[in-house]
Specification:
single chain, alpha+beta, Aminopeptidase, Elongation Factor Tu (Ef-tu), domain 3, eight-stranded mixed beta sheet, six-stranded antiparallel beta sheet, 17 strands
């Protein structure tokens, strides 16, 4: 399936942290033709493996999370819904359209006061979470019956082409990267490997990474590449903290990335003419690599990121060439990996 169609299909699904099942099932369907075995683990993460068939082969894990930021209904007032934000910046919420993942799903809007009735001081202040409500057009009785406490909510889905190269949607963090993993598996489909390749679509990354930590404990990989998004450059972003869309994926460099893996990633990119950027990560990478690297006796870990504008909003934007470049680099990294030394310098 064409990359853009995979992105559109995955991003259309409402699957916030803790409620990832729709995205996991669709991802499973897409991954199964490319793997020897695919399963869903106890926490709900998707795991696939392609075995190389060589005795004593090392294990490589490629991870991208399938959850997205969202809201959870916490109560009702006069038919309006109270909620708690899970990873969502409340400044993004007034007048937003949302999808309430009830049975069946319903549309709603986050209520806001019109500017005509706001004081000058109120216009300058960010809203407080307790002052926001979701309006689903229901009475109090209907709201309590149809949308119980604990119901998840996500931004309303949409998928838009921006020019010829970029796409805009919710949940591109991190389904753009899982799409890159699918493309990687496709590129390697007829290639001989010397490692067992595991592909992980993990859950609950936005709430601390429990899915990746549990999966890493169970799989016990020798190496891991955590694939996530990083901040894309905009006119108002600091140049040393954001990365150009179209400039290629960003290779993480820092004390929590295994040095020989980082070097191998950069060397492969140079040898094959794959555009990459360098992202210095001095501490916690903010990715699943942070938790995976200390699983069991430790996992040699690299981080590869796709630049993305407007993170954790309903209008996240990526450039298709960066997603493809990520897949091409991962495929090159995988081939011959078993011949590399596995200790840190």
């Amino acid at each position: 399936m064409e990359m853009i169609r995979i992105l559109e299909r995955l991003c259309s699904l409402g699957a916030p942290s803790g409620f990832e099942r729709p995205a996991v099932l669709t991802a499973k369907e897409l991954l199964e033709p490319l793997m020897d075995e695919v399963w869903i683990d106890r926490l709900g993460s998707l795991v696939g493996v392609r075995r190389c068939g060589k005795p004593g082969a090392k294990k490589l894990l490629l991870d991208a999370h399938l959850d997205e930021v969202g809201l959870v209904v916490t109560g009702h007032k006069n038919g309006f819904l109270r909620f708690q934000a899970n990873g969502v910046d409340v400044r993004m919420l007034p007048d937003r359209e949302v999808t309430i993942l009830s049975e069946p799903p319903m549309l709603g809007v986050v209520a806001c006061l019109p500017p005509h009735v706001l004081s000058a001081e109120e216009r300058e202040k960010a809203p407080e979470p307790q002052d926001l409500f979701i309006d689903a057009g229901l009475s109090q009785e209907e709201a309590e019956r149809r949308i119980p406490v604990g119901t998840p909510v996500v931004y309303r889905a949409g998928f838009t082409r921006l020019g010829e190269r970029q796409v805009c949607a919710k949940s591109l963090d991190d389904r753009a990267c899982f799409s890159a993993l699918l493309r990687t598996a496709q590129l390697l489909r007829d290639k001989e490997l010397d490692v067992d390749l595991y592909v992980l679509g993990s859950v609950c990354e936005e709430l601390g990474g429990a899915g990746a930590k549990v999966a890493a404990q169970a799989i016990a990989p020798d190496f891991c590449v955590a694939v996530d998004v990083t901040h894309g450059r905009t006119p108002d972003s600091p140049k040393d903290e954001a990365f150009a869309l179209g400039g290629g994926p960003a290779v993480g460099i820092g004390p929590n990335m295994t040095r020989w893996m980082t070097k191998r990633m950069l060397d492969k990119a140079e040898a094959l003419g794959i555009a990459v950027q360098k992202e210095v990560m001095e501490g916690n990478t903010g990715t699943n690599g942070w938790g995976i690297q200390i699983a069991n006796e430790g996992v040699a870990t690299a981080v590869l990121s796709v630049p993305l504008k407007y993170m954790h909003t309903p209008v996240e934007v990526v450039e298709l060439s960066d997603v493809e470049g990520c897949a091409q680099l991962l495929a090159a990294f995988v081939r011959g990996l078993g011949e590399e030394r596995t200790n840190c310098d």
